[in-house]
Amino acid sequence: MTVALKVRGLSVKVADKQILHGLDLEIPFGEVHALMGPNGSGKSTLCHVLTGKDGYEVEGSALLDGSEILDLDVDERSRAGLLQSFQYPTEVPGIRLEEFMLEAGDERGIARDEIEERIEVESDRFDMARFLDRSLNDELSGGEKKRSEIFQMAVLRPKVALLDEVDSGLDIDAVKQVAEAVEEMRSPDKGILIITHYSRILRYMTPDRIHVMIDGRIVDSGGAELAEELEAGGYDSVRDRLGIEKKTEDVAAKPADFFTETPFDL
To answer: What does the domain layout of the chain look like in residue ranges?
Structure first.
């Protein structure tokens, strides 16, 4: 089985605070994996480090299709085949979606006739043809923005797609639509990582593997049985089974934090 993304011993600090502790993760080509964990467990930090965000002290290795990427700049990682969708896609008035995709294709060295064909095919598949002449993400609903990002990834065909809380802020109908779009994007030459703490999206798709991150470590991995455990008992059930003590943070909880310990709650 060929590995799209292989992370080994990834440790990350910010201002002397350890966030990730020797993390290991593998995502084979052709598979969709879900990374779950309560708020503050390090999920988004992992995504930021993989895509090259500044400000982190990083040790370890991350191989994209066998090649190290941690020493590459952000644009070099993208050209190597790593793309990320965002929790809150930015609106860019004045830049049409189709124009943006043509420029992105040029940057990645894709021939103009090839990128035009991909745009036509994928816009039909993801119902985005009606948005091609509109400004990027401008006046789109949350679900439309997330589907647009998945459409963009389908056109650019990354080797690894990182979907950072792709279900964030969506109503249940939009979550179902985004889940279906992710399954549509699945292909033998792509590995997909969905990062989430509200795993209701897993009700509408079939990830090949589920990983649970707590306190900067992946503490457990499994299939449907792990999803069922989380649905029944939340993250506390995993903590109890593995003997992990729940930490008390010194900061006040944000309103969203009260929903992250029961990941299947609506």
So the answer is: 3-89+159-178+189-259
DSSP tally for the chain: helices H, then strands E:
7, 12
pLDDT in tens, 84-114: 987 778 889 899 999 999 999 998 889 999 9
Q: How far apart are CA 188 and CA 157, in angstroms?
A: 11
Note the maximum CA span of the chain. Answer: 56
Give dist(CA 46, CA 92) in Å, integer.
Answer: 26
By residue count, the chain amounts to 266
Q: How far apart are CA 215 and CA 213, in angstroms?
A: 7
Tell me the fold of 3-89+159-178+189-259. Rossmann fold (3.40.50)
**Mean pLDDT of the region 155-168:** 88
CA pseudo-torsion sign 58, 64, 66, 72: negative
